[in-house]
Amino acid sequence: MNITRFGHAAVLVDVAGTRILIDPGVFSVDETFDLTDLDAIVVTHQHPDHLDQDRAPALLERNPDAVLLCDPETAAVVSFGTWTENADGLETTVGAVTLRGVGARHAVILPSIPRIANVGVVLSAPGEPALFHPGDTYEYAPDGVDVLALPLSAPWAKSSETVDFVQRVSPAAMFPIHDCTIAEIAYGTYWGQVSGHGGVDDSRLLGQTEQASFELSHN
Q1: Could you give the 3-state DSSP secondary structure of residue 213?
Q2: Residue 10 and residue 21: Cα distance in Å, rounded?
Q3: 20 near 123, Cβ under 8 Å?
Q4: Which residues pair with 121 in a beta bridge?
Q5: Band (219; pLDDT cuts 50, 70, 90)
Q6: How far is the C-alpha of 217 from the C-alpha of 219, rounded, in Å?
Q7: DSSP state of 116
Q8: Which listed site, 3, 97, 149, 193, has its alpha carbon 20 to 30 Å from 213?
């Protein structure tokens, strides 16, 4: 499994001959929207940092055969593309990869702000590690996760909750996402807390556009 970050929450997963892009948002680098040969595009929820509705139409034009998968509320409000609704426990097969929906609701930001839908995704294929991208929540911790795309900072999160989430998921490996909200001078504090206390030996500090390969590993 090869994983390439494309800024903030955007992750490109190349696995089992299949290319899947997750959460191309407004903090994603321009190269995200020039990608081609995608087999699927997954959006966990409608917030702009997970779906850039200005740049995404061009991405869809470059990938007309890609399966488009998102939570039901996003499917109802996006005016471009034909999207398939994702849901907790729902499995969608793309090539040799199974995409399983995880969870239903976005984390609480403020009590006065209504919660929107958020459906994370676990990607798995025979003989490959299982990757979990949760979108914007720590509420759901599925079993059997080998690689965790970890939201490192958000208006809805604090470090103790981040560490607790990592420990509940208990992946073999993890890397940060959702981190454009952290100033460079403070980044080491956030990453040091989760890498030092999360209990994950293979904790990889990938920058906004870095790539890494992961092999199947059992906890």
Answers
A1: strand
A2: 7
A3: yes
A4: 101, 133
A5: very low
A6: 7
A7: P
A8: 193
